[in-house]
Amino acid sequence: MRVLVVNAGSSSVKLSLIGPGDETLAERELETPRAEVDADELSGVLSGEFAQADAVGHRIVHGGERFSGPVQIDSEVEAALRELVDLAPLHQPKSLAALGAVSTVLGDRPAVACFDTAFHRTMPTAAYTYALPARWRETWRLRRYGFHGLSHAWVARRAAQLLGAAPEDIALVSCHLGAGASLCAIADGRSIDTTMGFTPLEGLVMATRSGSVDPGLLLWLLEHESMSARELEHALEHESGLLGLAGSADMRVILARAGAGDHLAGAALDVYLHRLRAGIGAMAASLGRLDAIAFTGGIGEHAPVIRARAVAGLAFLGAAIDAERNDAADLDGDLTALGARVRTLVIRAREDLEIAHQVRRTLA
User: Fold this and answer.
1) What phi and psi values does residue 293 have, to the nearest 5 degrees?
2) What pLDDT does residue 35 have?
3) Given the DSSP bridges, would you call strands 292-296 and 343-346 parallel, antiparallel or unpaired?
4) Torsions phi, psi of 129, nearest 5?
5) Residue-wise over 265-291: b if at least 16 C-beta within 10 A, else e?
């Protein structure tokens, strides 16, 4: 089965045609800075080699409580996805726009929705519950959903392959570090804890997102500085994180500046790494043991300095990186130092392969 994977992100739509042996037959990225998709442009692209697809897999950021796994899309499912827009207002509209545009051209092919939240539906109650009034939690379904699930699911499967073990035999912390960033504690091949919560704002320091902050601080700003909810949202989503700390959202720029002695960039890295190490430690505590740490995502794959400094602070867990392996790492590989009890891996982010896998499983 040849699967067209449609990954609608915040600034682009990535198209990948994945062959029966998981080979990439074609790929294309369309810039889409607005919340809408250019249907004419997309139609033109899909009329070429992507038209060979036998099925379509759509990345959908939020599945709410209803969708705990991939599902074939029909009118009822699409209506349910539209009802979840309020839970992911920055991502869900783009995914739905891409769904509509692709359906216009390839509407005769079966389509499957694959959810970033679904992998985390195995989290225990203690991990996903907020200590909020019961009436709030029940009325508005306030809970931790978690995100980046497609990436973490791929890491769980690929890490097992690299380690020559079954996924259910590995206690793993998956570190998805990109513009958005999250950690996932994976046991028995299932998510048992993660750093993102009700929204993708919770957790680690990100490119422009703040990560976790004291909710009392936000209440203080609302009350004492007369900020509107919209101003707060914009600042937390688009003006915080590395951008707020160092004036740049690009980790490559920050690493170069820090290497040249820039104090502001160095301080930003310290904050970023402090949160990252603390988060990995928390995920290890949820697991109760730790067999491996896997880095993925743009920063996780391409910033050996971040991997090295993060793991250097985790020696108490039994982790250590081989400097030469780390600096030379290209594709998927083992970076573990000789004698280290915990393995350290770098794994290329392949949500497209995970989506293709879920599509085939759903339509089998």
Assistant:
1) -120, 130
2) 59
3) parallel
4) -95, 130
5) bbebbebbbebbbebbbebbebbeebb
Catalytic residues: 116
Number of residues written out for the chain: 364
- With 0.90 as the threshold, say if the pTM is over it: yes
Indicate the residue type of 73: I
Query: 164-351 is classed in which CATH architecture?
Result: 2-Layer Sandwich (3.30)
Kindly report the number of other CB atoms within 10 A of residue 264's CB atom.
Answer: 14
Pairwise CA distance, residues 205 & 186, whole Å: 21
Within this chain, domains 3-115 and 164-351 share the same CATH topology:
yes
Q: Following CA atoms 17, 21, 22, 26 in sequence, which dihedral angle do they give, to the nearest 10 degrees?
A: -30
Region at 159 (left for phi over 0; alpha for psi -120 to 50; beta for the rest): alpha
The per-residue pLDDT for 123 is 98
Rounded-to-integer distance, Cα 109 and Cα 129, Å: 39
Contact by Cβ (8 Å): 243, 138 = no
CATH architecture of 3-115: 2-Layer Sandwich (3.30)
Question: How far is it, in rounded angstroms, from Cα 165 to Cα 138?
Answer: 40
Q: What is the pLDDT of residue 38?
A: 80
pLDDT profile of the chain (364 residues), mean per 10: 90 91 95 73 88 96 94 96 86 88 93 97 98 97 96 97 95 97 97 96 96 97 94 95 98 98 98 98 98 97 98 97 96 96 97 98 96
| Burial of 364 per CB tally in 10 Å (0-12, 13-18, 19+) | exposed
Domain map (residue ranges) of the chain = 3-115, 164-351
If we measure between CA atoms, which residue out of 200, 206, 232 comes closest to residue 217? 232
Which residue is it, tokens 């037959």?
Answer: 25
**DSSP 8-state secondary structure symbol assigned to residue 313:** T
Letter for the amino acid at 276?
Answer: L
